[in-house]
Model the fold of this input.
Amino acid sequence: MFKIEDIMSENFSGYPEETQEFMKKYNEKLRENLKDELIKGISDKMLKDLDKSKDNFISTLAQILNNGWKGFDKMATQALLNMYLEGKNEEEFFKLIEKVNNEV
Done:
């Protein structure tokens, strides 16, 4: 058995090789799904803003361009999860975990 915290922190070294391989694959699938959901959420919000008001869309885009947007690929899994949980509820999170479990 392993701790979910070790997957989030990518701390695999204390586990047998077979378990490490599973944990790495799980982490990879979790990251892929988190990034996909975050991108979808951000793009949906921006498109809704565009429909509502061109100024809101331009403001959001300007924030990204002026302040930068840290690439999701460079973010730790825990940071991706924290961003995901800011905009999602418990049910959506469990659906994401089920999806990852099915992919692994």
